[in-house]
Write the structure tokens for this entry.
Amino acid sequence: MPTTKTLREGSTRKRAAILSAARELFLANGFDRTSVDAVAARAEVSKRTVYDYFGDKRTLLQAVVDAVGQSLITTIRRTLDETLTDLTEAADLEDALVTFSMRIATDMLGSADYATLQRLVRAESGHLPHRDENPLADTPDEAIAERFAAFAAAGLLDVPDPRLAADQFLALTFGVALDRLGSANAAEDTRVQPLVVEGVRTFLRAYRTR
């Protein structure tokens, strides 16, 4: 069972060192073969510090998964800001949406963080205290929905339900790639880009202002 003791926030540097050490060891050795002593030694902190900050090994694993998920969410939001901001012409939407999608398909889906999240959730889900919770959850969908709502307010898209539009956009782009290829990682498979481009065009045919 996860700990119920009051945990210390502690030093940001020590917390980051513990999370980094735990991530490396969980990936290399698995949850069962990774000891708190080994995490403490690699992080150059005491075993007591690990327990004070995280309580137990299962809670530490959850913290690693949550930290990786937050890093990926940060990547998504940064990519949205860099590719889908300050658009004023409907004619620019296709290029912008393709650029956003391809950045996600390389910078995020091809990242070490994404590979780590997939491996830990797949291999160690039985040890996660909150294994039914997806670290990415609905955050990416909601962030995209917010951007589509802004496009609708600017008259660039006709989007009665921005969240539904976001779900459909993801299904038409990454969802098709996952269903067809088993992956939406464009860094590993050049077949992803044509599917993404056609998905964006299909989305715009449905939601472009008339």
